[in-house]
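_Per-residue structure_
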Amino acid sequence: MATSYEYEEGHQHSSAPDSVGYDPNFVPDSVKSFVVHLYRHIREKNVYEIHQMYETSFQTLSERMFKDVPWPSVDAVAPYVDNDHVFCLLYREMWFRHLYARLSPTLKQRIDSWDNYCSLFQVVLHGVVNMQLPNQWLWDMVDEFVYQFQSFCQFRAKMKNKTEQEIATLKQYDQAWNVYGVLNFLQALMEKSMITQILEQEKEGLEQFTATDGYDYNGGSNVLKVLGYFSMIGLLRVHCLLGDYHTGLKCLQPIDISQQGVYTIVIGSHITTIYHYGFANLMLRRYVDAIREFNKILLYIYKTKQYHQKSPQYEQILKKNEQMYALLAICLSLCPQTKLVDETVLSQMREKYGEKMLRMQRYDDEAIALYDELFSYACPKFITPSAPSFEEPLVNYNQEAYRLQLKLFLYEVKQQQLLAGVRTFLKVYSTISLGKLAAYMEVDESTLRTILMTYKHKTHTVDSEGKVISNAELDFYIDDDMIHVIESKPVKLYGDYFLRQIVKLEGVMTDIDRIKLE
């Protein structure tokens, strides 16, 4: 639960530049105007104006006046907004997000931010909330909540240079950013919002959640419903950070990611959902599912990224885009099903990782090093959620969770090394005797049978409904010591090819029209 830590927001991290001249109680006129107008729009449920102020005005003011200092303290702005309790919680939520983005929060500020989230979510869960807030803001709340939890776990795990004061504070406020507290809030928002039932009823045509983008046009509030919806994605992310991929995917099940939904309206939520969904499936050996979704999102980003250049999320979009190309390269190296990937995405990926992917097929020490490199670059920042040991000597253990996941992943890759040779031979033959294949592979027949059983095992996995599915691009069966190979022939889709050529032709025609003939 919430810790009652009184802390003056003005006290700034000593390393922050220019913070010496920062007065938390000074409110410039532009900030007065900002909070007064934002407060009024929230009371009037003017979602369009709230969104404009939240996305544009807040960013502009931050850039212009608070580049390396915090915004004015909540106590200083409260008189301009009738000391409204809920507005002050929302303001502090933005205050802390700006602090995390531009400065280094102190331990006390991290604890204070946890307090604020506790108070804010308690109001949403147990109070009467009569607001409509933009989806972008509601997504950012859940996203930031999980990010600050991850950041706190990483911070706490670096015990080596902690001061005595920091250790005493960690001991005293051991419930701040506790993993059960974080999971409980996300779970409570999901359950209280009844979002799973709403999404079920929507399938039967009894609800209008996706059609209205989650907004309530009957005078109600969208806050609890949409927070509950985004909490499912938050839970997926937390469970991925903990290395529990199965539970993470289970939390996401009510959202049908094969369809457009509220999660696709906000680009950050769309990318976070598919990145973690794909990563969890990769770790569960469901390579085909991961490839399909990575392909769709990478194609979407390729087509739309120019529209997000002015967005504060633009850098994050580009970073996740690069990480997902690395994850797709890993998936296709372990499960070479390029027919599932669009030509545009494939050519982009070959440009970035073509040479590395060829070396990854070799399955020697260099290949393992490349898998290590791509995984380390693209994986989430795994966390150890348990409290640290305060016994001397104090050690940093912030890398332990990552090292464990990397070890498990590379163990899986090494097991797949055996299969590279088998796959090469099976591609060449439609039938081959066990003796002949054993001779080619320089092993005896009983070892070959073991390798073939391993191939069967490693190319099959259990899907989210408990069914055994195949990831293999080719399968086989053995009859009287003869191996019969069955290759899945891809269905050729000519539509995409023709559409691309039509677009190219139109471009050429436009260029010709521009040419002035003498």
